[in-house]
Write a structure and sequence with these properties.
By secondary structure, the protein is mostly helical. The chain has ten helices and no strands. The protein is globular, with a radius of gyration of 18 Å.
């Protein structure tokens, strides 16, 4: 009974705060109520069809189900002392908290880059990743539009961080919020980052919406999630 309640709690939390609320806001802001001032920042001219949006939502609900199952398993591992989550914040040095956030971003981006490239390997692409790429002009509803195998692969990356990297709950929550924001922005279809920011010496290593949107139209470039570090190193970076 307790496991069922945990699962329902995780499912409801991910559904509302990880999907419906943020995706709904961005869809309303940039697709439902698009203003003339936003049009210059539209990346693709294609307007997503209703059929595409329904598919994205349907697939995302399955992914949320898988994420909720995985979250329940990881939470039980935490209760059994099998993760590196520590609390309260004062247990570890204060300087480690921001460092652990940076490590989460880089390590998860590394995991994402290489698993993403694996999913684009021809023998497995149609079985794992093609589902997501059916949205050539994605909408915010596509953030979880994965096949079940890709959903599992995506969750494993997060689970590895929780199991092996010492994290306080606050840092984990902030990282999940950042991950959600970047994921939704990358599928919005409108560039949200001004060029004076994206061209700054340090910030140019971070992806913008255009970088990920380009991946949906050219599957051979821009495999990174948060950063374009691995793309630059491996020669798969396309900067528009």
């Amino acid at each position: 009974m307790m496991l069922l309640l945990e699962f329902v709690g995780f499912f409801a939390f991910i559904l509302v705060f990880g999907y419906l609320w943020p995706a709904g806001y961005f869809y309303y802001r940039y697709h439902w109520k698009t203003s003339a001032a936003q049009e210059p920042y539209r990346i693709q001219t294609t307007v997503p069809a209703r059929k595409q949006i329904c598919r994205e939502i349907r697939l995302s609900l399955v992914t949320i189900l898988i994420f909720a199952i995985g979250s329940t398993i990881v939470f039980e591992m935490y209760r059994a002392g099998l993760t590196r989550i520590y609390r309260p914040l004062t247990v570890g040095p204060l300087w480690y908290a921001p460092l652990s956030f940076i490590l989460c971003v880089f390590l998860n981006d590394t995991y994402f880059y290489w698993t993403h490239r694996f999913m684009h390997w021809r023998p497995v692409f149609k079985y794992i990743h093609l589902t997501h790429h059916r949205s050539v002009a994605p909408t915010p509803w596509a953030i979880f539009a994965f096949s079940p195998w890709e959903a599992i692969l995506q969750f494993v990356g997060l689970a590895l961080l929780i199991v092996f990297l010492p994290l306080c709950p606050l840092v984990l929550i902030l990282f999940l919020a950042y991950d959600t924001l970047v994921n939704i922005a990358g599928h919005t279809g409108f560039e949200l980052v001004p060029k004076w920011i994206s061209r700054a010496p340090v910030l140019r290593w971070f992806n913008t919406v255009t970088h990920h949107d380009a991946h949906h139209t050219n599957v051979r470039v821009n495999y990174g999630a948060f950063l374009n570090v691995w793309d630059r190193w491996m020669g798969t970076f396309l900067d528009k």
